[in-house]
Amino acid sequence: MSVDAGAFPTRRAKNFPLYTTVSRFVRDPLREILRISTAAGGEVARLDLGASHPYVVTHPDHVQQVLSKESQNFVRDGTFWRPLYGLFGDSIMSEYAEWELSKRVLQPVFSTRTIRSLSDHMARAINEAVRQLDEPARDGRPIEVLPEMGRIVHDTVIKVLFGDKIRQAEADRLIPAMERLATSIAFRFLLPFVPKSIPLPGDRAFAEGLRVMDETLYELVERFRYDAGEGYDIFTALCKARMTEGSGLDDHWVRDNLLAMWATSTETTTVALTWLWPMLDRQPEITGRLRAEIEEVVGDEAVRPEHLHRLPYVKQVIQELLRMYPVGWIFPRIALADTSIGGVPVKAGQTVLISPFLTHRLGSVWERPLEFDPERFTPEQNRARHRYAYYPFGGGPHQCIGRHVFNMEAELILTAILSRYRPSLRPTDGPVEARIGATLRPNQPLYLTLERLERSR
Ligand code: HEM
């Protein structure tokens, strides 16, 4: 479906004075932002936070302007990126020349050829990690969804990031440290304008998580500093680039990129896959169709990458999952020069917030936006849609480098679980809603009971 923004004369953005609704905002910031976006109906909205006035941009044409057509003018800089700079430094998550350099080194690791060669390792790791659910299934013991999805994702991502260069003890240290970072950054993420000198909840846990990450990653870099060896993994690519004469790259650069890749690949994938289960639980007919497709294509076998192109409905379910819960739900840009969006003047230095979560829930862009319906992602519907009606992975030069890795991983995990078990969600404590943080986690722990299917493997 395409939406026509029309040619606007110069106009004012709809202003939303958040300080007048501060109690609502503090109680449930996501609901309040969604209310504002719905009221603005795709027009540019101005959030009045007292000290700052970011614009919220949701219309597909406007998003395209910021992320793609005028990407040179809308950069990743400013207050909202500050909490992330401490984590990622001058890595692929930065901007300008530092970003370009890291992108040049990492892009080849994500080529279709390399990902294909990684895919067998990924499938093996996933089948093995999923098989470990046999024990709780046999005992009738419910599993907690987020940590279990996290365990499966980490076991898989480790192959992509480090190949066979990491020791089990190092991986075991990194996983809980990353979890600490992901959860403790929430306040800094929500209140980026609060200076570091003012302590916020989570600061101490964040510092501790970072210490463990740094210690472990620097140890690894040290071990491979003078001999990167062979491998298709990200770590090898970074070490080789560092060793190249005259590159000027150092251990910090390798560490910054490892941390950036680790953080962007694990938290996002884990949280997205966690949302899958409440979605499927609500609509057994979707699960039934998935099960029938998987039974026909995979049957009694362990899932392999070659199965995936014959599982179109699995793909559609994952695409719809990221429409409802695009876990990289908001990302800011700052304007370098004066311009206008949808007729609204934007001055140099002003912040623009781009949110796939909000665009994906606009009634003018999506019919029945709150309904989980994988039928939206048939090939015909995909062709007819505005490029920026759906952008869980962003767009333009910063478009997610790991999107094919995610798709393959998520499709393999969903298929591996449904081909082995019949999961049912334990009753929840009221409605399952998204809670704001660096990503969009559910507001409560979710539990699945798994019934093992009759299988010869
Ligand atoms: C559900 C899964 C994922 C979602 C929703 C997601 C979302 C995004 C989004 C929205 C951006 C754009 C940020 C911006 O424009 O400022 C991005 C960038 C990025 N993503 Fe992902 N991502 C996911 C998985 C992954 C995975 C699995 C990897 C790595 C294996 C990855 C690595 C990256 C990197 C390195 C960037 C920065 C690219 C650049 O600036 O050039 N992501 N991601």
From TrEMBL:
Picking any one GO molecular function of the record gives: monooxygenase activity
What are the names of the required cofactors?
Answer: heme
Q: Where do the annotations place heme binding?
A: C400
Q: Pfam families annotated for this entry?
A: p450
Arranged from A to Z, the UniProt key words for this protein are: Heme, Iron, Metal-binding, Monooxygenase, Oxidoreductase
Which PROSITE patterns does the protein's record reference? CYTOCHROME_P450
InterPro entries with a match to the protein in the record: Cyt_P450, Cyt_P450_CS, Cyt_P450_E_grp-I, Cyt_P450_sf, Cytochrome_P450_Monoox
Q: Which residues form a coiled coil?
A: none
Family that this chain belongs to: Belongs to the cytochrome P450 family.
* Protein name (database record): Cytochrome P450
Q: What is the lineage of its organism?
A: Bacteria, Bacillati, Actinomycetota, Actinomycetes, Streptosporangiales
